[in-house]
Amino acid sequence: MATTILRSVRTADHEERFDLIIVNGIIAGKSAPGTASGNNIIDCSSLYVSSGWIDMHVHAMESYQPYGDNMDEIGVRQGVTTIIDAGSCGADHIASLAQQSKEAATRVLAFLNISRIGLGERQDELCAEEWVDENEITTSINRFGSFIVGLKARISKSVVKNEGIRPLQTARYLSDKTGLPLMVHIGSGPPAIEEVLNLLQRKDIITHYLNGKKNNVLDENEQPLPEFLAAIKRGVHLDVGHGTASFSFEVAETARKLGIHPGTISSDIYRGNRLTGPVYSLAQVMSKFLLLGYSLVDVVNAVTTHAADWLGRPELGRIQVGDEANLTLFELVQDSIELTDSMGDLRKAETIIKTRGAIMGDKFYS
After folding, report:
1. Which element (helix H / strand E) includes 174?
2. pLDDT for 70-125, tens place per residue?
């Protein structure tokens, strides 16, 4: 019997430390700090534990350029136990992504790009109507089942070109027919952001909602567009999706002051912005929200319980006796460091989040 003890760990929402006991990969209980015994003791006296982090927006098809990366490099090696590929693949290559996910240590799920060609060869995948094939989409959903959690449509000028709002209208039809929610990338227009927002329904996701582009969710007076407020009221989910070009400190500050907060914090990470920034890691994106004044509890919830609730997988967002271990270990480091957004705006942080490991079942990754 293999027993792992997380010695003197704590959670973000409680000061009290405890020993967390994991037996054969299953959470078995907790005890007073320093009291549990086992054959693998991990000193967590400076660490926090949470349920395993979930990154709702990554690009994990390793062979794709530029939007690809190794699943475990952006997953367990960064303390992230679940990643959701945000539409890298359409029907043409979703089978390859699903096969690669079986070989990864990280738990991988995916949004299916409504364009069958996805992001493998070009990045204007919604500029031609014939690339959206309803039968192929339905076949992919039926074949891969719960691996596919939704449909992805990138609705910005560089992607749709002269097609305007039509690809999103098609995505809405496909979502209604399949019962899968949409993740919609917003960016430069046309189409106008108001047109996009009006087509979104409960549980659909707006990703990149804190981007600093002109076609964003705030008007010229830095007030939320009526269409944006109406979408939130309908239950549309707000996802950060930082990425190379889609997060602004200024917009995020304004949104916070307006009482508009992220449902989930995600990275939109791929090889380029992992290695050279401005993303680097989900932990660094989370640190930016600490810098903006969000509490540690708020930030951790945005990559655990909120994401798990959206997925309908509550077991991924909790630490509960009898569950398979699905945990992230991290610490708060006091260190003066410059963080940058996608607009080149630099802010100095004094506290950052650093991951120290991930536990999935009886495996520890660092």
Report:
1. helix 166-178
2. 999 999 999 999 999 999 999 999 999 999 999 999 999 999 999 999 999 899 99
CA proximity to 326, closest of 315, 313, 334 = 315
pTM for the model: 0.98
Contact 196, 168 (CB under 8 A): yes
Instruction: Give Cβ neighbours of residue 304 (< 8 Å, ≥ 6 apart).
Output: 50, 51, 52, 53, 54, 316, 317
Cis peptide bond N-terminal to 190, omega within 30:
yes
Give the tokens for residue 191. Answer: 């189409």
Nearest to 112 by CA among 84, 135, 89: 89
90, exposed or middle or buried, with CB in 10 Å at 0-12, 13-18, 19+? buried
Q: How far is CA 353 from CA 1, 81, 96, 157, 331, in A?
A: 33, 16, 33, 35, 6
| Dihedral sign, Cα of residue 47, residue 53, residue 55, residue 56 | negative
Q: What is the pLDDT of residues 9-47, one digit of tens each?
A: 999 999 999 999 999 999 999 999 999 999 999 999 999
Q: Hey, how many other C-beta atoms are within 10 angstroms of the C-beta on 61?
A: 24
| Residue 82 φ/ψ, nearest 5 degrees | -130, 125
| Spatial distance between the Cα atoms of 279 and 275, rounded to a whole number of angstroms | 8
